[in-house]
Write a structure and sequence with these properties.
The strands form three sheets. This protein has a four-stranded antiparallel sheet, with no helix packed on it. The chain has a four-stranded antiparallel sheet with strand order 4-3-7-8, with no helix packed on it. A two-stranded parallel sheet has the order 9-10. The protein has 181 residues and is an alpha+beta fold.
Length: 181
């Protein structure tokens, strides 16, 4: 049967990893069910001390930031992949009660009070339209034509709609799971 990550997330809890390793990987931001008030942040780490700090985009020093503790699950993908995912924690943060039509920033505290890059997102408005580009199976880091084709598609979409609200990608973002190089 096909591997269902969501089912495994709920059904097979693995112990959390709590190492003195302070790196975050695979940070993904996506709109929630109501993109005017909810956004989701997912990432991977190997400690349990990590948190997400978020605030409005005009608060560039994070002076008034709120802190969100992630929901964490231990994860390990063992298979016959060239480079399987090693043991780690998958972290989920759901930001709710956001203000419509507002730009926000966030960063991930890696667990040792150092931070990821700052990321941006904007909520949609009440009853307004949202534009997005949907891409799949892009194999972006395969060293071949995946990156070039993806860049052409993104640039073409921006030529048609310069104010894209977000880019949504699914599946096969890299050539081999667990290999981000």
């Amino acid at each position: 049967s096909k591997f269902d990550l969501h089912a495994k997330w709920e059904e097979i809890p693995l112990p959390l990893v709590d190492l003195d390793e302070y790196e975050v990987k695979y940070i993904v931001t996506s709109p929630g069910e109501d993109s005017s008030t909810t956004f989701l942040i997912n990432y991977h780490t190997k400690n349990i001390k990590t948190k997400v700090e978020w605030t409005t985009a005009d608060d560039v020093n994070f002076t008034n930031a709120k802190i969100a503790n992630p929901e964490m699950r231990g994860f390990e993908m063992l298979s016959n992949m060239e480079k399987p995912f090693e043991r780690r924690n998958v972290c989920r943060v759901t930001l709710t009660n956001l203000t419509p039509n507002t730009a926000y920033i966030y960063r991930v505290n890696k667990g040792d009070n150092t931070y990821s890059d700052t990321y941006h997102f904007s909520t949609s408005g009440n009853n307004d339209t949202t534009s997005f580009l949907f891409m799949t199976d892009i194999h972006y880091w395969d060293g071949g034509d995946g990156a070039e084709v993806s860049e052409k598609v993104i640039n073409g979409a921006l030529a048609l709609q310069p104010n894209l609200d977000f880019l949504l990608t699914t599946g096969d973002i890299i050539d081999t799971g667990g290999n981000c190089d």
